[in-house]
């Protein structure tokens, strides 16, 4: 288990906007200089032990790739019984996950719960009672300031498939700020401050990896590949354990986490009438906060029927939109008009299928 302690001296948080990005970058130059001057390098053997310990709780996730999205990712073990956390993404949604731990053992994975507001999924590796896993203690956490040297552990670019160690990237915390970012129509949902990193950590497969201090204290969960909304630049970030801690406990117990963000309620949704008239389908009722986007009925000779959609299909991707719920699908379809063609990736009978639907 990684040893953790508290860092109680925290500077005021920074905010990022059109001018704030520049201020953050200028501040970063001084922070990096200070960190390089003040940080004492660890002895070689001690540093090797920290790196070795940091790679142990990082899990290599493998699932179904969706469209241009990768079929691999990362997760962090949080209990000796095989509980783990990762980013809530398409791998989690497909439902066909395999986890490979540091010693090469492979396990099927069960999704215990998700929280859209925290962009978090809690998993369980389905092993035997005799299986024991190295883990990060999620009940305690470290915090970092601008200029803090950090290490990022993840299975970026599918560097490890068995007992090979995952990758390690060294960098610096640039600042701690609320992040306005996303990819395509997807908007980053976490409203509390995250760590922006001066390091290229958020590559393919890195989402769900572990961020630690230079001496091995866990700081947060590595995020997705996303762009800043105002600058268009790719963002490297991690969500602090302090943000994730309150939601992990209820998800481990199987309880639903209610979102306090009302943003989804204000999205434009396609009406039931338009679903049937323009697309020729209906969806299962949204009985849960995040009901999966299953098709309930396809009207004969409709655009949906011509495209080959069937009752029971689970929609995963609409063009560049990752679909995580019935609400997501309704919001995505609301953006299309007559004459347009939509590419839909769906799950059917355990396999992925891509169809094209044209709105007449």
Q: Can you summarize the main beta sheet?
A: 6 strands, antiparallel, barrel
C-alpha Rg (nearest Å):
21 Å
**Strands ordered across the widest β-sheet:** 1-2-3-6-5-4
By helix and strand content, what is the structural category? alpha+beta
What is the chain-wise order of helices and strands? HHEEEHEEEEEEEEEEEEEHHEEHEEHEE
Binned, the helix content reads: 10-25%
Unreliable parts:
1-39, 261-265
What global shape is seen? globular
**Total beta-strand segments:** 22
Strand residue content: 25-35%
- Treating each run of at least 4 consecutive H or I residues as one helix, how many helices? 7
End-to-end CA span: 58 Å
This entry's quaternary arrangement is single chain
The whole-number mean of residue pLDDT values reads 83
Outline the structure in words:
- By secondary structure, the protein is of the alpha+beta class.
- Helices cover 19% and strands 31% of the residues.
- It is built from seven helices and 22 strands.
- The protein has helices at residues 20-38, 44-55, 90-94, 241-252, 272-279, 303-307, 326-333, and strands at residues 58-62, 72-77, 83-87, 98-100, 106-115, 120-125, 149-154, 167-177, 181-183, 186-187, 194-198, 210-213, 218-222, 226-228, 234-235, 237-240, 281-283, 295-298, 314-318, 321-322, 341-348, 351-358.
- A six-stranded antiparallel β-barrel has the order 1-2-3-6-5-4. Strands 7-8-11-16-13-12 form a six-stranded antiparallel β-barrel.
- A hairpin with a 4-residue loop joins strand 12 and strand 13.
- The N and C termini lie far apart (58 Å).
- The model is unreliable at 1-39 and 261-265 (pLDDT under 50).
